[in-house]
Description:
six-stranded parallel beta sheet, about 30% helix
Amino acid sequence: MLLIPAVLFDRVTWWPAAADLRPHATVVAADLPGHGGSDPRLRYEPDELVDDLAGLIAALDVPLAPIVVGHGSSAGLATLFATRYAVHALVTVDADDSFALDRDRYLQTMNLDALPAPYRNLVDVADEPRLLRDYAACIRIRPHPDPPSTARHARLAIRSRPPADPDPGDCRMNIYDVPGRFAHLIDVDRFVCDIKRLL
C-alpha cells in the first residue's frame, strides 16, 4: 500500500492509519520531494515523481500490485500512478482539482483546526514558500479521470464532505461527513475499514 500525503504535508499525516493497516499489508507512507525527510529538487514533474514512487514500490520486491492512496492535492499523482502502473486499487481522500496555489488560501481550505487534538502535532506544514507553486503541474492533474479501458482496479473516493460535483466517474464514493479535509485523520477507524475492504 502506497500512501501519498497532500502537498505541503509529510508522511506523518498517515501514521495513525498506517499503524492500524500494518498487520494487514506492507504499508509505505512516502514523503514527496521537498517534504519531511525528502530532499528538495529543482523541478517537480509529475511523470518523474510517479516513476520515483514506482521505483520505491519495486524496491520492496512485493509481488502484488499496490493500493495507491492520494490525499488532497496529491490525488492527481495517485491517479497518474494508476494510469501508468498496475495497481490493485486507487483511493483518493478529499481530492479536489480546484486547489488554490496561494499558500494561505490553500491551507484555509484544509481547515487544520478541525483535526482532533491528539493528531494536530502530526500535521506539520512545509515552510518553503514556493513549494505549492512548484507542485502546480501535479496539483492540476484531474483526480477522477475516466479510466482507460484496460484499467481493472477498484476506485474509491473518500470525502470529508459531499463534493460540489458529486460525479467522480465510476468511482465508489464514501462521504464521512466530518469537518476539514483530513478524513483519514478525523475518522481513522472508518478509513482503515474502507481500505481493509479493498485488500
